[in-house]
Amino acid sequence: MTKEEIRQNLTTYQLPKWDKLPDFDIYMDQVIYFINNGLAPLYFNDDKIITNSMVNNYVKSSIVKPPVKKHYTQNHLAYLIVVCILKRCYSLTEISNLLKIYQNESKASVGDAYNEFVALFEDYLHEIMKHDKITQQIEGVTSYQRLMDNVIKSIVYKIYAEIETLELI
Predict the structure, then answer these.
(1) Can you give the residue ranges of every domain in the chain?
(2) What is the pLDDT of residue 104?
């Protein structure tokens, strides 16, 4: 795939919204399949998106809560999708810290917070794919919201840089 094709695909790319995540318990293999399919356009450089061992590592590291009787919920999926996006730029320790900040500062439900993350990520991704930069600025927000805004921007800029260097190597 050329960088122009990748950029075109990402110009309209959409992450699954909260209401599109399964609202029933699923098994590990289904989690892996769902996330790998949903995030595949963001991983154009053949990196592994998520594996069973990665999920187990995230649980052992307390980044994601353990499944109940080997069943994963909508909350698990939302956290795992966010972790898979954050790991493009951040270490597991940094991701863990960012998620702890979210849990301590956010008054929103997991679903609302996830949808806010998705909306901002998509807005920035679409803008940079169309215009080669992000011009949107959020105003009148808390330091926590500004941090999350900058975290998302850093990820989107990294994706952009990876695309732009594809044909240069």
Answers:
(1) 3-164
(2) 82
